[in-house]
């Protein structure tokens, strides 16, 4: 099925809306391939095709949802009926209605580069094997590569609603990832890096090899640091992880439901004035770019934090109606889930300290190159966080010995206000994203 | 156009194999035609229901359905895999050829031993009441009762979210070596999450109960009582002070503390990681890796626990595997591929998230067995430290053994007594070190909360458990100076 046919199918289901019923249908098809290499050979090649439908039915403020992994006509009909059955048990919320067209023009991005469709399997295998070999050759201490993988995918989707929305999208992407092992005597350390892009020639294999192997070798000899409060430099990938968490608590659903520490703070300083954060899904360079949000409204650029002041929250149609404002085009969803609220493509403005001068600006502290346990270590309601951390000491303004088996802890609120430096260059991350390193004062490092 | 015959012969009552066995046979033969040595068909039919009760009302009721097949073909160390939701004979044959395309390096190729197919490819669900036979209004009533119980518990409770979920997963696994096995897995889960507001901000409390059972879950579980416990956790934390920062003795309450072992050493005992040199426990079988008295077991047969299965996702019966016996590493966990390479039997630990995924070595229900100390004596014998009453999720770096896990409810221990509540934080430790640092094991074993274990992008349901135990020193990642 092409996207036109998917859109027609979605519209046909929406046309079955009866009475006060509102229907929204999301349909998608996809294909994907993943190749893993090991010991110079293909270890596995996995490929497949998928199809999915998600039907949301609203009736008098009540919501029901059903989804299935097939677009067979009988399945489509069953899914609509299941969503209708589920509506009967929903309870009314006057704000719960589908998004209405808002006249906003989508950015008109061409995100469906067909280049990924024409890559022969032999090239994908060669890419994975080459990635493994290059990691092994990068440093004599690299003793193996746990994962050297290539993946690609192509998906087509359409979304239609009985309020007159009908949009369609094709997107393709490919990615590589490596987990090399560095060994010295009895000690083994593992590194990781990856990249993703819309076109295979945009993948930065050199960066993935260098970054993943240096992360592994750089940790050899790492020890547990003493516990103290100090200034930390967050490497770009770590900064990006924290910014994603911050963005999640700026979603209006958590605000409305009393689960965000930043409720009632619009217009107030919530971060150091150096921090500027926007959501920009209109930049086609990032994989977060999109023409439409999860309810079919135009994706748009939204300022979230300007000079440390909270500009506003991200909204989908429901949270906007409940807050008496307009959707910011921030509905995010999969085909098989109801639209939530979230950030598409976070961008942090660069600062004024050259990246290679950041350590000197800190004098004594730590550079955090990786964190673990983000899913269990951040409470987005209270803002408390405590996550596993590893990286290097900074002593006398110079990078010093590596540390591991430690945590960094604070609250999101204090961390944002404690930003005391931002790198002048945004460094590339997977998926076309880029992020400058951040310097944050007064973080608790726990070790010995 | 080739005429196609639907091969789904079973309706939702679970009668008959997911794919007709003649079609299974033909598909496996097709998969081996190009020279593969071994082929497997994995069929899955999953349905689920979820109800989300938030802000005092049913916010969403949803249902989902998924059916599909994954075909795996191996030749030497090469594995080809293809998945499809097209379960017609032609769709399966296409997938078989796609899977076989990369696995063709064997000179002779394998044969299908259908004559020795063990089992008829069917299984009955092991539940008393299928959740699908229960009216949705009864599910909503439980959620409402939980919401009301939590809100009436304390004025500080400002938000309550309650969730009900059930799932049914029917699988059929057949391979060219004659395995033909099926399972019908039903799981039911109920969770409550509360927000309490106080002068110091917001705090949260959560309780979850889930078993590999049907609606009979609620014979023994009172959602209102569960909700009150979640509310109490949130309210207690309003008065919490910052957790300490640094190494302290840590007593972990019975039950969910088992997640510590899941992270500290469970993953490191998965044979796929061991084989690639990515585990600190490689080459350690037969060695003392933990304190005496520590016995660690992974047991997929442990019905009705969350990680219970009759067969794994490669068709092998699950079993009770003793991994560490009185401190000595006795074995790793195995899937088919890794056990084939080692010339031994699999241990029933080959699992996958769905038909779109390749199986790999995974845990089921992982737990530490009882010691002989009264848990009250363990606390009384701890002059100062931290008591962890409830744990969140964790993560491990298997190459170093460094792991973290979240404490979602914890208290100070002062002079042998549990005293003030602590704010949330992560604990960090090193698996091999923690195992030898266990210096007290209680006699009050319990299983913990249902969990989802993530590995290489796949999530599977797992259980864990332990008696109260003490670790001589763990790093608490708090903020207190």
What does this 3D model show about the protein?
The complex is a heterodimer of chains A (448) and B (481). Chain A is 22% helix and 37% strand. Chain A is α+β, with helices and mostly antiparallel strands and 448 residues long. In chain A, strands 1, 2, 3, 4, 5, 6 and 7 form a seven-stranded antiparallel beta sheet that branches. A five-stranded mixed beta barrel of chain A has the order 8-15-16-17-21. In chain A, strands 11-10-9-14 form a four-stranded antiparallel beta sheet, covered by helices on one side. In chain A, a hairpin with a 2-residue loop joins strand 16 (384-395) and strand 17 (398-411). The longest helix of chain A is centred in the first third of the chain and has 18 residues, at 121-138. Chain A is globular and about 70 Å long. Chain B folds into two domains: 21-238, PmbA/TldD superfamily (PmbA/TldD fold, 2-Layer Sandwich), CATH 3.30.2290; 245-477, no CATH class. Chain B is globular, with a radius of gyration of 24 Å. Residues 1-13 of chain B have low confidence and may be disordered. Chains A and B meet through strand 2, strand 3, helix 2, strand 4 and strand 5 of A and strand 2, strand 3, helix 3, strand 6 and strand 7 of B.
Based on DSSP secondary structure assignment, what is the total number of beta strands of chain B?
22
Task: Please tell me what the overall shape of chain B is.
Answer: globular
Strand coverage percent of chain A: 35-45%
Based on secondary structure, the structural category of chain B is alpha+beta
Strand content of chain B: 35-45%
Largest sheet of chain B: 7 strands, mixed
Average the pLDDT over all residues of chain A and give the rounded result: 95
Give the biggest sheet of chain A.
Answer: 7 strands, antiparallel
Fraction of helical residues of chain B: 10-25%
Supply the number of structural domains of chain B: 2
Unreliable parts of chain B: 1-13
Largest interface between protein chains, with number of residues from each side: A-B, 85 and 82 residues
Kindly, what is the distance between the CA atoms of the first and last residues of chain A, rounded to a whole number of angstroms? 59 Å
**Subunit organisation of the chains:** heterodimer
């Amino acid at each position: 099925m092409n996207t036109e046919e998917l859109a027609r199918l979605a519209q046909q289901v929406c046309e079955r809306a009866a009475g006060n019923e509102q229907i929204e249908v999301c349909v998608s098809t996809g294909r994907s391939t993943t190749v893993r290499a090991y010991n110079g050979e293909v270890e596995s090649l996995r490929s497949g095709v998928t199809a999915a439908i998600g039907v949301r039915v609203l009736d008098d403020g009540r919501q029901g949802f059903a989804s299935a992994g097939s677009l067979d006509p009988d399945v489509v009909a069953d899914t609509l009926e299941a969503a209708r059955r589920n509506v009967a048990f929903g309870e009314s919320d006057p704000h719960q209605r589908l998004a209405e067209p808002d006249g906003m023009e989508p950015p008109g991005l061409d995100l469906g580069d067909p280049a990924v469709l024409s890559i022969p399997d032999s090239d994908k295998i060669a890419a994975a094997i080459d990635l493994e070999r290059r990691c092994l050759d990068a440093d004599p201490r690299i003793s193996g590569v746990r994962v050297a993988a290539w993946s690609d995918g192509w998906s087509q989707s359409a979304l239609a609603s009985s309020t007159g929305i009908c949009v369609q999208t094709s997107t393709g992407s490919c990615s590589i990832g490596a987990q090399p092992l560095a060994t010295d005597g009895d000690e083994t350390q593992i590194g990781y890096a990856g990249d993703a892009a819309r076109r295979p020639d945009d993948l930065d294999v050199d960066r993935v090899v260098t970054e993943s192997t240096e992360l592994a070798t750089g940790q050899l000899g790492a020890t547990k640091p003493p516990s103290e409060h100090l200034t930390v430099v967050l490497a770009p990938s770590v900064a990006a992880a924290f910014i994603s968490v911050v963005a999640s608590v700026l979603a209006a659903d958590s605000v409305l439901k009393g689960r965000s520490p930043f409720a009632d703070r619009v217009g107030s300083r919530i971060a150091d004035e150096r921090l500027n954060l926007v959501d920009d899904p209109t930049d086609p360079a990032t994989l977060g770019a999109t023409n439409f949000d999860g309810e079919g409204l135009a994706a748009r650029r939204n300022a979230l934090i300007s000079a440390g002041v909270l500009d506003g929250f991200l909204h989908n149609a429901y949270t906007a109606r409940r807050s008496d404002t307009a959707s910011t085009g921030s509905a995010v969803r999969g085909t098989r889930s109801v639209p939530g609220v979230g950030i598409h493509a976070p961008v942090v403005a660069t600062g004024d300290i050259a990246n290679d001068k950041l350590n000197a600006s800190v004098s004594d502290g730590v550079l955090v190159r990786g964190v673990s346990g983000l899913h269990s270590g951040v409470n987005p309601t209270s803002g408390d966080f405590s996550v596993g951390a590893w990286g290097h000491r900074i002593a006398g303004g110079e990078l010093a010995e590596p540390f591991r088996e430690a945590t960094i802890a604070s609250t999101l609120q204090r961390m944002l206000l404690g930003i005391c430096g931002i790198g002048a260059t945004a460094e590339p991350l997977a998926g076309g994203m880029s992020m400058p390193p951040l310097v944050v004062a007064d973080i608790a490092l726990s070790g010995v | 156009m080739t005429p196609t015959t639907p091969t789904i012969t079973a309706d939702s009552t679970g009668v008959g194999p997911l794919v007709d066995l003649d079609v299974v046979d033909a598909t496996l033969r097709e998969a081996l035609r190009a020279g593969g040595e071994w082929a497997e068909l994995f069929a899955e039919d999953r349905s689920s229901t979820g109800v989300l009760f938030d802000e005092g009302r049913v916010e969403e009721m949803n249902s989902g359905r998924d059916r599909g097949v994954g075909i795996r073909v191996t030749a030497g160390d090469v594995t080809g895999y293809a998945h499809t939701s097209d379960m017609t004979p032609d769709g399966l044959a296409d997938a078989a050829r796609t899977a076989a395309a990369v696995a063709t390096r064997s000179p002779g190729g394998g044969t299908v031993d259908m004559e020795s197919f063990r089992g008829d490819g069917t299984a009955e669900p092991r539940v008393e009441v299928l959740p699908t036979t229960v009216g949705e209004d009864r599910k909503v009533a439980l959620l409402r009762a939980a919401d009301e119980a939590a809100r009436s518990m304390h004025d500080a409770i400002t938000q309550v979210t309650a969730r009900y979920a059930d799932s049914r997963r029917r699988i059929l696994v057949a391979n060219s070596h004659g395995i033909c096995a099926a399972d019908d897995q039903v799981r039911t889960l109920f969770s409550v999450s509360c927000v309490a507001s106080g002068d110091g901000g917001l705090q949260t409390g959560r309780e979850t109960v889930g078993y590999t059972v049907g609606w009979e879950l609620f014979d023994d579980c009172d959602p209102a009582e569960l909700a009150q416990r979640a509310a109490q956790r949130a309210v207690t934390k309003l008065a919490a002070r910052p957790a300490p920062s640094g190494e302290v003795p840590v007593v972990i309450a019975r039950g969910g503390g088992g997640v510590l072992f899941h992270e500290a050493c469970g993953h490191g005992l998965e044979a796929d990681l061991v084989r690639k040199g990515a585990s600190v426990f490689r080459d350690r079988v037969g060695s003392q890796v933990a304190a005496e008295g520590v016995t660690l077991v992974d047991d997929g047969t442990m019905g009705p626990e969350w990680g219970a299965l009759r067969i794994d996702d490669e068709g092998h019966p699950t079993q009770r595997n003793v991994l560490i016996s009185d401190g000595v590493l006795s074995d790793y966990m195995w899937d088919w591929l890794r056990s084939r390479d080692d010339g031994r039997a699999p241990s029933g630990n080959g699992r996958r998230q769905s038909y779109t995924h390749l199986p790999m070595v995974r845990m089921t229900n992982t737990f530490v067995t009882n010691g002989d100390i009264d848990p009250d004596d363990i606390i009384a014998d701890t002059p100062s430290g931290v008591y962890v009453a409830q744990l969140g999720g964790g993560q491990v770096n298997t190459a170093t053994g460094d792991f973290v896990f979240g404490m979602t409810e914890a208290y100070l221990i002062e002079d042998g007594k549990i005293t003030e509540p602590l704010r949330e934080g992560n604990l960090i430790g090193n698996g091999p070190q923690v195992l030898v640092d266990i210096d007290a094991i209680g006699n009050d074993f319990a299983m913990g909360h249902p969990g989802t274990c993530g590995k290489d992008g796949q999530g599977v349901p797992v259980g864990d458990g332990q008696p109260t135990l003490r670790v001589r020193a763990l790093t608490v990642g708090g903020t207190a100076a």
